[in-house]
Amino acid sequence: MSRVTGDEPTTGCRVCGGTVEQWCDLGRQPISQDFRDPAATDPEYFFHLAVGVCLSCAMVQQLEQVPSELMFHADYPYRSSGSEFMRRHFAGVARRLLATELAGPDPFAVEIGCNDGIMLGTIAAAGVRHLGVDPSRRATETAEAAGVRVRVDFFDEATAREILAAEGPADLIYSANTVSHIPFLGSVFRGAATLLAPDGVFVFEDRYLGDILDNAYFDQIYDEHCYLFAVRSVQALAARSGLELVGAERIPVHGGSIRYTVARAGARPPGPEIAELLAWEREQGLHRPERLRRFTARMEQIRADLVDLLRDLRAAGHRVVGYGATAKSATVTNYCGIGPDLVEFVCDSTPGKQGLVTPGMHLPIRPPESFADPYPDYALLFAWNHAEEIMAKEHAFREQGGKWILYVPKVHIV
């Protein structure tokens, strides 16, 4: 499934080959989804997690790239359907696309990173021709069971040519929280240019650099997020493949994302929000190294405050557990040095994670029933992007005196 494209820059910026200046260093980190058997003796893979910005095309990117096959493999544990919020979100996205981009005669939709079919399931139920492309065999089995057609593969230019030959051009290529995971972006965008119908669009959602910086979301930086997108960098990226950014809609997913719409150059007029967001990014100095370095100071303060709080709580005899064995929790626990001495265990609803330990710091992962057996005094909420949904579900925890600890945009207790 893994391909080497052969023409991606091997030094400097992975998009344009320009000079990349480092601005954020999170130190030694493990594979964020490498949940392990506590008895495992094989060595863990660690890498240096540092991020820089290209001084030419403004793409924010990791300096050391983890091999894709170590992250996105047959047993990749993340499932999009695990959150009620995300289920509603993707159902809404599918209905909107069916009413717009897929409203013509015999439309064809392709999704990059379809995971368990949470979005394509609605497309399939409407009888629309579709194909999901995802390298995780285990996740796609769930999608196929729901009636979704899937190709188990990475999406790149070669894959796009093969899909075009077999299926014809795509009216829609869609992706959510996946494009930023793919190191060979040039090949992905050339693939989109190859596969799209003349008036087709490439729509993808991803976390927004502006929101990450404003809210000190340092845990959005982990192995899978090779890039942190902004309107300026996506516009430049699209242009390199003969495409054009024509839409950029801010959405609340994952603490703040943008839904980008890319089309063939000249095929559609860019929306006014493109110029507005570009002007805002310039005003904010979003890609200036000095602006980015200020984020580092906030990140370091959060680490100091969180560790001090956890140490004080444990010294006072309080029980603290974690909630949500998320990928981003690996960044928090390893950057802050949070082990079982500070947090007893982490509760998670994903069966495949239960009974294992978290990457690097080896916090035990237990099922949700353990959260109330008995309730802890404090819960460190790693899945803060689903705080409203989780707190509503765990209302009994609050009612018996339990308190939540959140660490972005600053350490606070609710």
TrEMBL record:
One of its GO terms (molecular function) is methyltransferase activity. InterPro entries: Methyltransf_Zn-bd_dom_put, Methyltransf_Zn-bd_dom_put_sf, MeTrfase_14, SAM-dependent_MTases_sf. CDD domains: AdoMet_MTases. The lineage of its organism: Bacteria, Bacillati, Actinomycetota, Actinomycetes, Streptosporangiales. The keyword Transferase applies. The keyword Signal does not apply. Residues 13-72 form the Methyltransferase putative zinc binding domain. This is Class I SAM-dependent methyltransferase.
